[in-house]
Amino acid sequence: MPPSLARKTIIEIEAALADEQSAAISEIIQIIQQLASKAFSISVNELSELIGRDPTVTTKVISAANTLGYNPGGQPVNTLSDAIHTVGFEKIRNLAISLMLAENASNGTNSYEQRQAAALCVCSGMLAKQLAKKPGREDESELHFVCASLRNYGRLLLSTFKLDDYRLALSHALEMPEDQAFEHVFGLTPLALGEAILQQTNLPKDIKRSLAPLSPATLRQPAYSLQEETLLLSELAVSLSAVVFDETVGPDGFNHALRGVLTRFAASYPLSIEAVNEALLQVDEDINALNRSVGIADKHSPASAKLYARLNSTHLPKPPAHARIQALAKSKPLTEMSPEERQSFSDETFAAANQKFEAALVPGSKVRLAEIFDALCAAFTEAANLENCLVFTREEYDPKNLSARYGSGKLFGKVKNRPIVGPDKNDIFSICLSRKEDILIQDTRAGKVSKVIPEWIHAAAETSSLIILPVSYEKQLRCLIVGTVSEGRQIDLSETDLKHLRSIRASISLLYGLIDSQAVIAI
Q: Which helix (H) or strand (E) holds 480?
């Protein structure tokens, strides 16, 4: 019997967390999970060793521990052990979690959705800590921080490892309750996913209980135990933070939306709107202080930007165009998309490739050409609904000829690494090599065109339309980007597609220049 949709999602997330290829992406998630799972059993040495795995985080924890906010006595802190003994075990653990989430939220190479999820974790945890503050109960407020942060853990996992489906769920959520939308796409809610993944760890019982769904019975009466209070406060902080981040709620409707959340908790955890806004003010100060201590600009901090807008009754910053597209529109054929949908679809589709190239153009970088060209081929294929996308580069020992070194599709599999493009072939590709001009063929069998179409282009299927985009550096052609479709179809490119392709080709040209000067190392 095949696994249920929910079980399939859990299995895929578990595999992604264990996959060595995703280690760089998931490292922050794994460290946060381990920090939380050993929240009350980890030793000082173990905490130092775990945080110390990332030298950048270590440096920033020590830097933050030397600030007045964490160390009002001004005692010098030079090591993680100093920080733990001076500031306190729980505070340093939570500081490390906050730092890693803040880094994830400000990292421009992460998707918009992943950055928003990380920022929501930070905001929820800090808000719970503020709302829980009571004299003599500081340790409990640290517990509330961990619990509220981890209540968003499933959302962070899905936006990291299942981004397309995550966007689809958010699209459905415009037309149905959000939990129902996520159950439709993933078989379970983000909360249930986070609970399922974290239940396999050695989480303390107090934290495990805080990951459970909130029952109507619990909402109907005041909390009678610390466990119930933690559960209520965690969900309350997450719900209030969700309003802060909700791009459909304008300035005029913000307090009304907050009151809607408070009304839901009126019997179990009563709070005034004034108390919530005061807590948000303090959260804003705490996040800004955290950003300053580790060198994150406020403009790169989603939580800071959103809190600033809410506290000043202004509109939230506009999300990037590709984040506004409804994933449901993405399932339409290109010809059925509205101009706005097509533009947003193109922006979204090329976003990852653009980010890859931006990162590759940093002097001193080591660049995996296969990785960035594969990202280009994936984006071009999806944006133009291609069947094949190939990148031809010059042969090392016979540079006048070019071979398909990178690509996707059945045609790429047929011709990979064969030096089939060259100036002496007397075909459409040799014409492109000579003129260094873009070529779009909408009918490979039309008239005289058919005579210059090489036979290998039909090796996987009867190619009906193809596009050839040359990339040059210092007037020398360095590679060709080729796309094809078959069965009578024609290649359809929007103006936005062409804009992104121009930008990427300019980036490839710059990259070749950096490689030639050895400012960037190709590996």
A: strand 476-486
Burial of residue 57 (CB within 10 Å: 0-12, 13-18, 19+) is buried
Contacts 24+ apart (CB under 8 A), 169-177: 169/327, 170/113, 170/327, 171/326, 171/327, 171/328, 171/329, 172/327, 172/328, 174/326
Task: Transcribe 381-436 into DSSP letters.
Answer: HHHHT-SEEEEEEE-SS-TTSEEEEEEESHHHHHHBT---B-TTS-SHHHHHHHH-
Residue 208 DSSP SS3: helix
Q: What is the pLDDT of residue 112?
A: 84
> What is the amino acid identity at position 29?
I
Q: Is 2 exposed, middle or buried (0-12, 13-18, 19+ CB in 10 A)?
A: exposed
Question: Do residues 457 and 484 touch, judged by C-beta distance below 8 A?
Answer: yes
Q: How many CB atoms lie within 10 A of CB 328?
A: 14
Q: Which residues of 183-218 are buried (b: 16+ CB within 10 A; e: fewer)?
A: bebbbbbbbbbbbbbbeeeebbebbbbbbbebeeeb
Cα distance between residue 359 and residue 508, in whole Å: 12
Q: Mind listing the domains of the chain with CATH numbers?
A: 5-311 (1.10.3210.10), 332-522 (3.30.450.40)
Spatial CB neighbours of 152, under 8 Å, sequence gap ≥ 6: 117, 120, 121, 124, 190, 194, 238
Residue 85 parent element (H or E):
helix 80-87
Helix (H, G, I), strand (E, B) or coil at 72: coil
Separation of CA 479 from chain center: 30
Hey, what are 417's tokens? 């690494």
Interatomic CA distance for residues 56 and 33, integer angstroms: 18
Q: Please report, for residues 128, 152, 156, the alpha-carbon distance to residue 143 in angstroms, rounded to integers and kept in the order given.
A: 9, 15, 20
> What's the one-letter identity of residue 481?
I
Q: Which of 378, 380, 454, 457 is nearest to 415 (CA)?
A: 457
39 closest CA partner among 125, 115, 118: 125
Copy the structure tokens of residue 433. 């090599």
What pTM value is reported for the model? 0.64
Alpha-carbon distance of 382 to 493, in angstroms, equals 11
Cα 72 from Cα 485, distance rounded (Å): 66
Q: Which long-range contacts (CB under 8 A, 24 or more apart) does 23-26 make?
A: 25/160, 25/161, 26/160, 26/161
Which residue has 């690494």 as its token pair?
417
* DSSP H or E stretch at residue 289: helix 273-294
DSSP 221: S
Please give the structure tokens belonging to residue 431.
């014409």
Convert the pLDDT of each residue in 208-228 to its tens digit: 788 888 888 888 888 778 788
Of 419, 514, 509, the C-alpha closest to 471 is 509
Which of the residues in the chain have pLDDT under 50? 1, 21-26
Q: Could you give the CA distance from residue 432 to residue 421 in angstroms, rounded to a whole number?
A: 10
